[in-house]
Amino acid sequence: KRANHQNQLNINEKFVINENKIGKNKVITMRLSLEGKTITLVDAIKLFQPKSIRLNNKGIFEKKITDSFSYFIANLTEPGYFKDDQRILGFTFFFVSSYEIDDKRHYENMKKDIYEIHSIINGKIIDDSSFKKK
């Protein structure tokens, strides 16, 4: 029996379980440069189609992994969207981090697709993520 209220747990405090820097989520990116070669938007659409990667209404490519998660592919050249491009120099693959355990799994899915696409176009992969092996 507790007599002293100081020994009791106060559950009126706000807390978050598995907090992942709420409001400070970072963007996980990998880039695929074509190394001096170029590709057209039509060819990029054909390249990504077998991987269920589609051009969305924002002018970038998107791959839905789950109902609540997608990763995106922007043009390596600013401003990043694709609009009748005839000379694409490369791609930036990215997603916004959410929960660390999911981030690693999503990163592995995205990385697998990048390496499969790389095997076709033979460019250069630049991994800017914090998941890369040291």
What would your notes on this structure say?
This protein has 134 residues and is of the alpha+beta class. It has one domain: ZipA, C-terminal FtsZ-binding domain (Cell Division Protein Zipa, Chain: A), CATH 3.30.1400.10. The longest helix has 22 residues. The N and C termini lie far apart (53 Å). The relative contact order is 0.23. The model has no long low-confidence stretch (mean pLDDT 83).
- Helix-strand topology string: EHEEEEHE
- Uncertain residue segments: none
Q: What is the alpha-carbon Rg in Å? A: 21 Å
Number of helices: 2
Mass-distribution shape:
globular
Count of distinct strands: 6
Largest sheet: 6 strands, antiparallel
CATH topology: Cell Division Protein Zipa, Chain: A
Helix amount: 10-25%
**The CATH homologous superfamily:** ZipA, C-terminal FtsZ-binding domain
Spatial order of the strands forming the largest sheet: 2-3-4-5-1-6
Terminal CA distance reads 53 Å
What is the highest CATH level, the class? Answer: Alpha Beta
Classification by helices and strands: alpha+beta
Features:
134 residues, alpha+beta, Cell Division Protein Zipa, Chain: A, 6-stranded antiparallel beta sheet, 2 helices, 25% strand
How are the secondary structure elements laid out?
Layout: E1 27-33, H1 41-48, E2 54-55, E3 61-66, E4 69-75, E5 90-96, H2 100-121, E6 124-127
Brief digest:
By secondary structure, this protein is α+β, with helices and mostly antiparallel strands. The chain is built from two helices and six strands.
